[in-house]
Design brief:
Layout lengths: L11 E3 L8 H10 L3 E3 L3 E2 H5 L2 E5 L4 E5 L5 E6 L6 E6 L3 H11 L5 E6 L4 H4 L11 H14 L4 E6 L4 H12 L5 E5 L13 H10 L4 E4 L9 H11 L3 E4 L1 H5 L12 H14 L4 H12 L6 H8 L3 H7 L3 H20 L7 E3 L2 E4 L14 H11 L6 E7 L2 E8 L2 E5 L6 H16 L16 H31 L22
Parallel strand pairs: 1-2, 1-12, 2-7, 3-7, 7-8, 8-9, 9-10, 10-11, 11-12, 14-17
Antiparallel strand pairs: 4-5, 5-6, 13-14, 15-16, 16-17
Helix pairs in contact: 1-10, 3-5, 6-7, 10-11, 13-14, 15-16
Length: 496
């Protein structure tokens, strides 16, 4: 294996766990001594729709779905140690996703062991075990198509011979390692792990074999990890539930009290703006049989990370972290360079804010961009907006090219205007600011007519208010028979 590439020999790893293996848990496991951490299984179809976004505020790289959900978040701290696990049944889709993430992860893993419907539908997960040809096609495509190591995780087959035969075939694809969960597809955690199968596989191949499935029977403490490795005859060990219950099982110095572990986890969840419901789920898994305790009930009732922080007495930590993130956000805004466009993938980016006071009430950059597109006989500009931490960022597509402001706005409408400004400035097209020379995109009569109409309406409204006030001062008593006209509504500003 080339220098600098992740090695799977003699390691202890955090296993991929749905809803558990998010960034806070992975960082926690690394802090406590894990050598490698796997993310939760992420489905290829969903990941293929994601956009890679550099989050300068959190200092992370986010893979964001069209509905603005962050499907995968990673950071520099884990870059050389995180393995991206995907659920897939299609070689081409698997390769597309692997190429999307390969610059930000240390290796890519294919899930071929999960027996739950979440994974098996569509032929993924353990369903792949009955289709060795597809397994080989997926792995060969990935091994030849990306620059980082490729691995897979399987369950054992009904016979020892079948299991060994499959793993030998997997080895020939060029994968860097194979993880073996020592249970049959129909078995569950309550069933004992079959260490003899893992041992036979390890003896039959030359690549590292990672033993998995020993949490219930074998691993209670850090010292048990080595005993499980020996019993399975494997090169390495991967822990799921033992780590989920108390991630400090990775500590060679011994486990920490659960209260300390939960506090450490929650701090990471706050620092990286982890989804509150995911935070809740992971804490409840740690609480286990204490989930109905007063603390457990408070956690279950919480709806935000702020409320979860109160349950653990971390209100001040939460407050300070939010202040730090806001300060970082403000610094990024003020330190930007608006006139310097850069390219991020297929998007042209400038640091631009939409300042409403710089434009006449009835004129906006979106209007100018629309009129310019019509003049050039192009399709109407298309806007896609995402939200994050109560802020908005929009991307506009014009003539099959994308434009976005790197700055976040307070509303979806303002974010769209900022994207329009970026596009107009890159194209060298007027945007309608006050004092700008008439471009002819919006006819002068139409512009002045709207301005004069709005001004006249405002003067009329003021005159009416003045008349009403004068009448009020002259009349001491107002009878029921008096009738008053309603003041005309103020002029409606254009929907931004």
């Amino acid at each position: 294996m080339a220098a600098g590439r992740l090695s799977f020999s003699n390691i202890t790893a955090l296993a991929p766990m749905v809803r558990v293996g998010t960034l806070p848990m992975r960082l926690l496991a690394l802090d406590y001594g894990a050598d490698v951490v796997y993310c939760e299984e992420l489905i290829d179809i969903k990941m293929a729709q994601c956009q890679r976004v550099v989050n300068d505020v959190l200092e992370t790289v986010d893979f964001v779905a069209p509905d603005d959900r962050v499907m995968f978040r990673t950071c520099e701290r884990e870059k050389g140690k995180v393995v991206f696990q995907m659920g897939t049944a299609d070689p081409d889709r698997a390769l597309a996703v692997a190429r999307l993430v390969e610059k930000d992860v240390a290796a890519v893993d294919v899930n071929m062991g999960c027996p739950k419907e979440y994974s098996t539908k569509g032929g993924m997960g353990a369903a792949l075990l009955s289709d060795p040809d597809k397994i080989e096609a997926i792995l060969r495509t990935l091994v030849t198509g990306v620059s980082i190591p490729v691995t897979c995780k399987i369950r054992i087959l009904p016979s020892l011979e079948e299991t060994v035969s499959l793993v030998r075939r997997i080895e020939r694809t060029g994968v860097a390692a194979v993880a073996v969960h020592g249970r049959f597809k129909e078995e569950r955690p309550r069933h004992p792990v079959h260490c003899d199968y893992i041992q036979a596989v390890a003896q039959a191949v030359s690549i590292p074999v990672i033993a998995n499935g020993g949490s219930l029977d074998h691993v209670k403490t850090n010292a048990d990890i080595e005993e499980f490795r020996k019993a399975a005859g494997a090169s390495s060990v991967m822990l799921a539930r033992a780590a989920m219950w108390n991630a400090s099982v990775f500590r060679s110095q011994g486990a920490l009290p659960l209260e300390k572990v939960m506090e450490d986890y929650l701090k990471y969840a706050i620092q990286y703006s982890n989804n509150a419901f995911n935070t809740k789920y992971c804490l409840c898994q740690m609480l286990r049989d204490k989930v109905e305790s007063p603390l457990g009930k408070q956690v279950q009732a919480a709806q935000t990370n702020a409320e979860i922080s109160e349950a653990y007495g971390l209100q001040e930590f939460y407050r300070q972290t939010q202040e730090q993130l806001q300060a970082r956000r403000d610094a990024l805004q003020s330190g930007s360079h608006p006139e310097r466009p850069v390219t991020d993938g297929d998007v042209t980016i400038m640091a631009v804010k939409f300042e409403r006071r710089e434009y006449p009430p009835q004129i906006t950059p979106k209007m100018f961009l629309l009129e310019w597109s019509r003049k050039e006989k192009l399709e109407q500009p298309q806007y896609e907006t995402r939200a994050q931490d109560r802020a908005f960022q929009s991307t506009v597509t014009v003539a099959q090219k994308k434009y976005r402001s790197s700055l976040w706005e307070k509303s979806k409408k303002f974010a769209e205007q900022a994207a329009a400004i970026v596009c107009l400035r890159v194209l060298g097209v007027p945007e309608g600011r006050i004092g700008e020379e008439d471009s002819g995109l919006v006819c002068k009569r139409k512009r002045e007519g709207k301005v004069n109409g709005a001004a006249e309406e405002e003067r009329s409204r003021k005159r009416h208010v003045s008349d009403v006030l004068q009448q009020t001062s002259e009349v001491a008593v107002v009878t029921n028979g008096d009738s008053h006209k309603e003041a005309p509504p103020p002029s409606q500003r254009e929907s931004l």
